[in-house]
Structure formats: C-alpha cells, structure tokens
C-alpha cells in the first residue's frame, strides 16, 4: 500500500468516524463514495470494505455512547438480530447484482433518506 493510499484511507476513516459518532452513519454515506471516487474501488469492494471497517467504529462509538448514557440496549439487541439475519442473506445479492444497479440503489436510498430527514425530520 502506497503512502498516499494510507493517507487517503486514514482521512476517510477520520471523517467517517466523526460522522458515525455524531449521526450514526459513516460506512455507507462516507466510506463507500470515498472508496469509489478517491481509491478507485469497484462498488462491490467499496461496500464490503466499508462494512469491515465499520466493525471497530461501531464498537468504539457504541461503548462511548453507552458510557454517556445514550442508547437503548433492548431495541439494539432486537434490531441487531433482524439486521444480522437479513444481512447474511442479502450479502449474497452483492455478488448477483450488477455494480451499476447496486450504485443506483445506493444513491436512491441516500437521496430518499436525506430528503425524508430534511423535510420531515424531528429532533
């Protein structure tokens, strides 16, 4: 790995760490586009790498949030069960979907969720 790739990767990680800690997102919203555009990853490798990188981020941010009195462990446990179960099966779709369709789906989800939060979001 070249020094510039290391520097870019550390920067992507730092930015996504801040966004993850403050907004609960980072992998998909920050890492995937950065991996694709800055590191020239294919969409599928960007998604897979983002998920791998988010394991540590989720553990660290979750422990800090719990220490600070935030979060609902019961809801998190049930949600995790549902997410892990469906992610196991849906990860095979990554292999089957074309990169173009995957990128379009990713963009659509970001736009729809972003619009929903901007137009109807509540604090």
Distance between the termini: 42 Å
Q: Main beta sheet, described?
A: none
Mean pLDDT reading: 90
- Beta-strand percentage range: under 5%
Helix-strand category: mainly alpha
Number of individual domains = 1
The helical percent reads over 70%
Continuous helix count: 5
Following the backbone from N to C, one meets helices and strands in this order, namely: HHHHH
Low-confidence stretches: none
The Cα radius of gyration reads 16 Å
Overall 3D geometry?
A: globular
Q: Could you give the count of β-strands? A: 0
Describe this structure in words.
The chain is mainly α and 123 residues long. It has one domain. The chain is 84% helix and 0% strand. The protein is built from five helices and no strands. Helix 2 (27-37) packs antiparallel against helix 3. It is globular, with a radius of gyration of 16 Å. The N and C termini lie far apart (42 Å).
């Amino acid at each position: 790995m070249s020094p510039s790739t290391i520097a870019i990767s550390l920067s992507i990680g730092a930015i996504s760490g801040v966004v993850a800690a403050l907004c609960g997102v980072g992998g998909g919203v920050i890492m995937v586009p950065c991996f694709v555009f800055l590191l020239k990853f294919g969409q599928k490798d960007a998604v897979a790498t983002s998920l791998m990188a988010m394991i540590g981020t989720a553990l660290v941010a979750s422990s800090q949030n719990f220490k600070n009195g935030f979060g609902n462990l019961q809801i998190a446990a049930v949600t995790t069960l549902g997410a892990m179960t469906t992610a196991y099966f849906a990860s095979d779709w990554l292999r089957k979907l074309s990169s173009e369709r995957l990128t379009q789906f990713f963009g659509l989800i970001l736009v729809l969720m972003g619009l929903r939060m901007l137009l109807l979001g509540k604090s």
